[in-house]
Amino acid sequence: HLMVKDCIFEDTDRGLRVKTRRGRGNDAVIEDITFENIKMDGVLTPFVVNSFYWCCDPDGHSEYVRSKEPLPVDERTPFIRELYFKDIEAHNCHVAATFIYGLPEAKIDKLTFENVHVDFAENPTPEYPAMMADVEPCTKKGIYINNVKELIMKNVTVEGAEGEPVEI
Description:
Elements: E1 2-10, E2 14-19, E3 29-30, E4 33-41, E5 45-50, H1 63-66, E6 79-80, E7 82-93, E8 96-101, E9 108-120, E10 141-146, E11 148-159, E12 166-167
Parallel strand pairs: 1-4, 2-5, 3-6, 4-7, 5-8, 7-9, 8-10, 9-11, 10-12
């Protein structure tokens, strides 16, 4: 139950990032977060929601954390319930417009993007779109979304993406 509002991000690796991983369970129930009226410039990836975050914890690189196969839901399973992104501009991005990856056994319940614009830098720097295993560096990737139950997009534009503009 959090509101992030009226922020400016300049030359950061990720803009708005929500990260968790298997093993964090009941300590990682993320729900009802609103991001509103935000400006970004020179951000590598402006929107990242990553349920396979591989840093920090001793077992962060284990097969349990990195497996993309559905595993049993138990007390170690984290949940992301509802995220809302509204009135956001991200200019001169480098890597991807969005990189969203939920768990196959605990999909992200609901994502809403409203009045969002992303465009890319003329000479982007290749980098990883998120800190997770089995992801390759890239540039100018459009909208990538995996393992989400409900996705709402209203007035969302991405300019300058190369390849598939949307991968779901």
